[in-house]
Amino acid sequence: SNIICFLPQFTASITVTQVRYALLRQLTPSRDRWHLKVHLSRKWTARNFTSKEVWGPDMLLIDENEDQIHAVAPRDLIPLFNNILTEGDIFHVKKFNVFKINGTYRPIIDGEYKIYFKNDTIVKRSDDQTLPIPLYKFSFIEFNKIPNRYNQPKYLTGIHY
């Protein structure tokens, strides 16, 4: 939109650009100029199960459509993001990579992509923390189907009673 200012002996037209946010379901590896508005649902430190070596921060991000994606950052970027990324906050994120998920470690069942933060990734806490973006997403299944998930690393199944 254009804003026109009228001052004595001065007229200026300022163009205000509105940021277009991508939805998580729109992400593909073929493009790298995405801008997200997401809730940081969960954050933890990923480690090698055998050596206990720290890999880096892992996160679950949720957008306004209740879609969820797994995001990671390399170990050497922990100091860059650790103090900024607070679980439960809403963030604007841009300049990151999107890759197809490989391997068996999948904190999210549905979804084929993962976000990788880089040293030039920009993460900014949103000024508006009341945006209608859910904090959690659950995938409920019938109780009698839980035994079928035993020893299947693809599923992280929890029981709440």
UniProtKB/TrEMBL annotation:
InterPro entries: NA-bd_OB-fold (IPR012340), RFA1B/D_OB_1st (IPR003871). Residues 21-125 form the Replication protein A 70 kDa DNA-binding subunit B/D first OB fold domain. Signal peptide: none annotated. It comes from the Eukaryota. This is Replication protein A 70 kDa DNA-binding subunit B/D first OB fold domain-containing protein. It comes from Kingdonia uniflora. The lineage of its organism: Eukaryota, Viridiplantae, Streptophyta, Embryophyta, Tracheophyta.
